[in-house]
Amino acid sequence: MGTVAVQGLCKSFGKVQALDGVTLDVPDGSFFVVLGPSGAGKTTTLRAIAGLEKLDAGSVHLDGRDATGDTPAARDLAMVFQNYALYPRHTVYENIASPLRARRCSSSEIAAAVEQMSNLLHIERLLQRRPAQLSGGEMQRVALARALVRRPRAFLMDEPLTNLDLKLRVEMRTELTRIHRSLGATFVYVTNDQIEALSMADQVAVLKEGTVQQVGTPTEVYERPANKWVAGFVGSPPISLLACRAEGDRLVGAEGWTLPRPRWTTAEDGRALLLGLRAEDLSVEQRGDASLSGELYGLEPLGDRTVVDVRVGTEILKVKARPTVTGTPGERLRVTVDLDRAHLFDAGTGLSLSEAGR
Amino acid sequence: MAVSVDEAVSTGPARDHTPPARRLGSRGRSVLEVALLTVLAVVMLFPVLWMIETSIKENRDVYAIPAKFFDFKVTLDHYKDVFVDPGGGRSALSVSFLNSVVVAGVSTVLATVLGVPAAWAYSRFAVKAKKDQLFFILSTRFMPPVVVVIPIFLMYRQVGLIDNKLGLILIYAAFNVPFTIWMMKGFVDEVPAEYEDAAMLDGYTRLQAFRRFTLPLLVPGIAATAVFALIFSWNEFVFATFLTSSDDVRTAPPAIAGLIGGTTTDWGLVAAASVVFALPVLVFAYLVRKHLIAGVTLGAVRR
Predict the structure, then answer these.
(1) Which pick of A229, B106, B253, B265 has the fewest CB atoms within 10 Å?
(2) Cis bond leading into B66, ω under 30°?
(3) How many angstroms separate the CA atoms of A114 and A93, rounded?
């Protein structure tokens, strides 16, 4: 078993409300990612689960049992810290052994467990070194080994890959997913990197300013964002949002353009809306009737694709195009819109209006 | 980034940056610099040298006019007099030295034992009105001891702590605790709280986490702080003079001062006692100099 449930977490630091009613339900054995920008309260949420933060309100249930007042030790969790927090005076071996020593395991058990972990994470050579003699990637592996050396209820990971270089990060992403599958354990993983969230998670909770914006599978969060903020935060290049309103069977943009009104929207006429268009749902090639006219603003070649910035009135659309696309700024062009995949948000509340009719 | 305090302590050659020296020509310091530094050194060191010389001169050489700098007979009689009573047995001075050792040592240990956990608590926990509390603690050091010595004297008389080593120990510890808290808080702030967080998740209690993982990293800071506290207690004069009277209790500073005055002053004995009094602190500071430098420079670098 390894379920983690938090209910209505509130925590303020002075005048800053770090958590404002965070409720999450982490199923047993899932890879649960808490995603959000810095300052969203991700780390505070994790520390609240770990018992390192005194809460103003809310409860933490582990395996269905109320653990709100328990000490960190009593919660039986393991955590990987963003800066790894390896004990500087201890060797790698002693760092990994620490959770077992705290639980008074015999030294033969400890030796066996440390050896198994060092094999799993390929750090056999490092066991007698001290943290200061390790590279960032090696520290990260040691921190991971210290967490994985025993079988806690759940593993908490606080941006464990943030301090690694890009190549290593991609490697460790695959490796973490592999470890999660082989252990079948519950992972609660905090990150501000949406690619980590989308590629590794079973479930993603998107956090902003201490409140949960949306919980769902990576696909749900990407394909059906609950509000314009989630839509803007998840996805790269970011989604383009255009102000418009529905009038009869048309969508009329604030910049003067018109598009056929998508069948699925139930928004009443005249309501202020935001049309959300992802770069891959737009095209500079002629593909259908629904199109917007604008002028080329800039090209951003990314190797496998080129992002074309198109100016429509005063707003900029990000359009995904083939890497071979060319053009000169100022040139007029039409952008084809895949309206079936577009999103509509209430301009006032920011909430999605797309879901009802789909 | 996790950085151990060890690194701050290591005095490898890599840290010995040559300061951008201002040089006249290629021959080191200028004549003017050397001259000024020599004058300064003489002014600073002459009293010390004179004290040492006096302590090993025979009495008639001490009073010789003109003063003898080099051509005197060396004697260690004064040092003998410091420790041995002319009538046999231990001298009053040697008892006062022993008292100083006890009072300074115990009060330093007491201040450290109380101050280090307090500093840790102020550094790690959310304490109500933390800044006000810390300011209050510091404010007890604002006034000079001589201001409070009369009230303390009156209070001590009520509770029977006058002319009592315990009384001195308590007052020195009380003076050293605020200093210890402030200095140690800086050191604790430098040790990332994550070590304790990680230890608690490993399964240790908060106190175990502090003792096993934070405390070892604080040793250089504790050494530096304790030396400063020890020096304060060792040198303290005002309280010792007012609160003690008998030879059994008196510490060395008032005992040495008591040698001066009366009809004649045995300057040789005063000098020898002063040398003996100065030595322990010098030796101790020399032994922990590595930690002292780390203690003074730690926190100056933002990591």
Answers:
(1) B265
(2) yes
(3) 7
Taking the C-alpha atoms of residue A238 and residue A234, their distance in angstroms, rounded to an integer, is 7
- How many domains, in total, are found in chain A? 2
Q: What is the largest CA-CA distance in chain A?
A: 76
Number of residues written out for chain A? 358
Kindly state whether residue A166 falls inside one of the protein's structural domains: yes
Q: Is residue A159 situated within a structural domain?
A: yes
User: Does residue A354 lie in a domain region?
Assistant: no
Contacting residues for A178 by C-beta, under 8 A, at least 6 apart: none
Comparing CB atoms, the residue among B126, B192, B203 nearest residue A85 is: B192
- CA–CA min distance A205, chain B (Å): 24
DSSP string, A129-181: S-GGGS-HHHHHHHHHHHHHTS--SEEEEESTTTTS-HHHHHHHHHHHHHHHH
For helices A136-148 and A107-120, the axis angle rounded to 10 degrees is: 130
| Domains and their CATH numbers in chain B | 27-75 (no CATH), 91-297 (1.10.3720.10)
Counting Cα atoms < 13 Å in the Cβ hemisphere of A107 gives 2
B205 to A71: CB separation less than 8 angstroms, yes or no: yes
CB A154 within 8 A of CB A26: yes
Question: With an 8 Å Cβ cutoff, is A104 touching chain B?
Answer: no
Residues of B in Cβ contact (< 8 Å) with A80: none
List chain A pLDDT tens, one digit each, 358 residues.
Answer: 689 999 999 999 988 999 999 999 999 999 999 999 998 999 999 999 999 999 999 999 999 999 999 999 999 999 999 989 999 989 999 999 999 999 999 999 999 999 999 988 889 999 999 999 998 889 999 999 999 999 999 999 999 998 888 888 898 899 999 999 998 999 999 999 999 999 999 999 999 999 999 999 999 999 999 999 999 999 889 999 999 988 888 888 888 888 888 877 777 788 889 999 999 999 988 777 788 888 999 999 999 999 999 998 888 999 999 998 888 899 998 999 988 888 999 998 999 887 654 5
Measured CA to CA, the distance from residue B299 to residue B187 in angstroms comes to: 7
